[in-house]
Structure formats: C-alpha cells, structure tokens
Amino acid sequence: MLVVVLLAVLAALALAFLVDLLSVAKRRRQLRPNPESIALGAVTNFFDTLGIGSFAPTTAWLKLRKLIPDSYLPATLNSGHALPTVAQALIFINLVRVDPLLLAACIAAAVAGATLGAPLVMRAPVRTVQAIVGFALLIAAGLYALSNLGMLPAGGDALALTGPLFAVAVVLHFLLGALMTFGIGLYAPSLILLSLLGLNPTAAFPIMMGACAFLMPVSGIRFVRSERIDLRVVLGLAIGGIPAVLLAAYVVKSLPLTALRWGVVVVVLYAAALLLRSAWTAPVPAGAADPA
Description:
The chain is mostly helical. The chain has one domain (2-281). The protein has 12 helices and no strands. Helix 5 packs parallel to helix 11 (231-252). The longest helix is centred in the N-terminal third of the chain and has 26 residues, at 2-27. It is globular and about 45 Å long.
C-alpha cells in the first residue's frame, strides 16, 4: 500500500512540475527545445538507466560545448533530468523488491535536503558553483574508475535495514539530497552507502532512483523560476531522455559498460579541470553578469 501511495504522489509531483515548466518556458519564450540537448538527454538518460549516471556526462558535454553558463549547471541538471528520472523510478519501484519503509524514509530525507539546498544554489556565487561542480566531477571520475577496477563494495543480500543502520541511511540521504541541488549526482554515493550498510545493490536502485525522482521535481519547481537556467536545454534533455529510459529499461536492459565508463572518466576529468580553472582564475565582481 505504501508503494502505491509513493507512486501516486510521484506521478502528481511530475505532472505539477511539467505544468510549471511549460508555463514558465512559454512566458519566457523558451518553449522551443535546444536540438543538441535532445540528443544529449537521450544518450545520458539511456546510460543512466543502465547505471552510468547522467549528471557527470551531461555536465561535461554542456561545459565542453559551452551551451550554458557554468552557474546554470545545477538548475539545468536537476530540472532537465527530472522527468526522465521519474520514469526510471516508476519502473524500478515496481520491478525491484525493497523494504517500503526504508524506501519512503530515504526519499523523504532526500527531498528535505533538496528543499533546503535549492535556495542556497540560487544565491551562491558563480565561482562557488564552479568549484563545487568541478570537485564533484573529480569524485564522479574516481567512482567510475573504482567501479571499473572492481574496488567498490559488493554489498550484502539484505532487502531492509534496521536500527542504527536505518538511521544512518536516512541521515546521509538528507545530505545527498542537499548536495544534489549543486549538481552532484546522488546515484553512485547512494549505491555505495547502501551497499556498505549491507543492502543488496539491486535493492538500492529503487531507493536511489526514487529519491532523485521525488527531489528533482520539488527542487525543479524552484529552479525553473530562477534566472540561472536555460529552459530550452531543460526541455531538450527531458524530451530526449524519457523515450531513452523506456528503451534502456524494457528493450536493451544491459550492456558491457566498462569501456564506456573509462571514456566518461577522461571526458569528466577534462570538464572538471576547466571548471576548477574558471573558479580559480576568473573571479566575478559583485553584480557582474554570469560568464558564458
């Protein structure tokens, strides 16, 4: 019953976010999606559904192609990938068994963290955003490398956590929710955390996807109204991403991803270096416009 309620609330949140996104995009005359971002959304969300993650490769491409200013990255990532992530969550929460109470508690904690984190992102100086996202990309590259080398925790076989382990999972998902609003992906840290606590890694998928699917529309409603966002890119990511999720989940299901992860490591490291260099060498005076 709890899972049914979660799915119904998630669908309602997604619909509210979609209506708000289209309304704001129409008012700003940004209803025409960016064509390149449609392809980007398709590729990144396809591999996101298979476990690669979407934030790091999307950030790398947006930075390398200079499609948006650096300060637009958190809002664009959280808003653009919101609806594809909802599609993922609706699929995996239905398909994969996990303790409903743990699922609901981690989702609620992540949403609470994102609710507090979104206003901080919108007010943060450009250099702060560049530095945080740059360091996040370095961490993501490290996680990709560790995954390829087989050095990440294998996890246990539990489908539920109790007592102190339950509390640790909830508290850390609150922190991960707050960090995600800065453009720091939740998937890999959540998977590692839950595996270390003894949860079956497969059971972690509905938790990490559910947490992201709930918090992204909630924070996205704030982000789409900010000035630091390009709604044409957001719409493109969503339009390309949703069918790619369905293709990956129901048709392809699995691929040999090791070689792709090594390629992502190289691209993400390069993008991280560019962001950190910008944060270090290009201070922005108070009141100045965001750099392209």
